[in-house]
Amino acid sequence: MNKLFSKRRGQHFMLLLRYWRLVFNDHFVIALFFLFGALAYGYSQWLPTLGPHEWWTRLVLVGWFTVIAQVGRLATLLKKPDPVFLLPQVEGIHRYLNQATWYSLILAEVMTVVGAFIALPFALTTEKLSSMEIFTVFLVAIINKADWMHLARKAISQRWGNQQWRTRLEYWVNPLLAAAAMWLINPYVGLVVAVILYLAVLVYYRDLAVNWRIAVKTEQDRMYSVYRFFNLFTDVPSVQGNTKRRKWADWLVNWLTKDGQPWSYLYARAFVRSTEVSGIVSRLTLLGMVIVFLLPAGWLSTVIVVLFIYLIATQLMPLYDQYEANVFTHIYPIPPRQQQVDFKQLLAKVTALEAVLIALASISWQINVGQMLINFVIAAIEVVLLSRFYFNVRVKKLMK
């Protein structure tokens, strides 16, 4: 069983590596560089504006340390045939799941420590913490995650697997109690509460014979969420796109469509009804609005506005050849040039709409109207450049 888990872990790692290479291409790495740089800069500029011992800062810390305990899930790497072929391996599957739990816990603890490091400057700005108290804060976060992972292991057991509502409640309540004791009283009390809760979970949830149906379903759901993330950037065979009727968006279809131009109607429908394209565009727009609003007004907000408009345009480009495999589109009595004209129109309208929303949000919490107007002008210029020049370059690549 040890060899089986090691083999599956290697296969799983190679699968993720293959998709990571597609996701983290040159454009996305540059975008992430600017994005995290902007967030770090905004964070550093915001901290000096905080005063010591403000009433709401401790609540923010309690919420943050509760949330980071939810990061990192149990990866069992179980598959559908396992209940048939591994059912006689009672002791072996117990060792297998112990390995899976330790593997998942180590990765999750790394992310937990990173999350605690992110909150540390905020905590030191608003609270007076000694070196020992800082160490205790990290220790509480680590114990909370170990508590969470044991609850996840309990959630796929025969005895406790059917009580999912109880597990979901414990996922949040246990770290919340420890975090509240840590920040509302002091870190040492939080450490005592975290240890007591962890020991109680270990002692009470001891009968952890695997429930195969729940374990396999849980792992399938976890992998599907991973594939959905990758599917935002590249095609994943395991994820099939779906189409939804969105009656509330009829006005958007009418706005994107031009009378007498069938391609504009097809592209407008494809954009609005496709959960993949419209979903990623809407999420990028919302994320861009939040970031530029939180950033101090200045040249950095302009860079983020330009970056997000470019990212939205790149996500729209694969829509151009969506109907290429449909034989009926090739017998339309319409010049091929018209397809490019109609898609260029869609690209211009969608990027213009998103540019307006992001530029409006760039007024920032400091209410800087001048910076917002500058961003409007630059965004308008970028939309023209993207729809007239960048589109032609990308179409040539797509048609090769």
From TrEMBL:
Q: Which Pfam families match?
A: EcsB
Q: Name the UniProt key words of this record, in alphabetical order.
A: Membrane, Transmembrane, Transmembrane helix
Locate the transmembrane regions by residue number: 20-43, 55-79, 100-122, 172-205, 286-313, 373-391
Q: Which domain of life is it from?
A: Bacteria
Q: Any idea what this protein is called? A: ABC transporter
Task: List the source organism.
Answer: Limosilactobacillus walteri
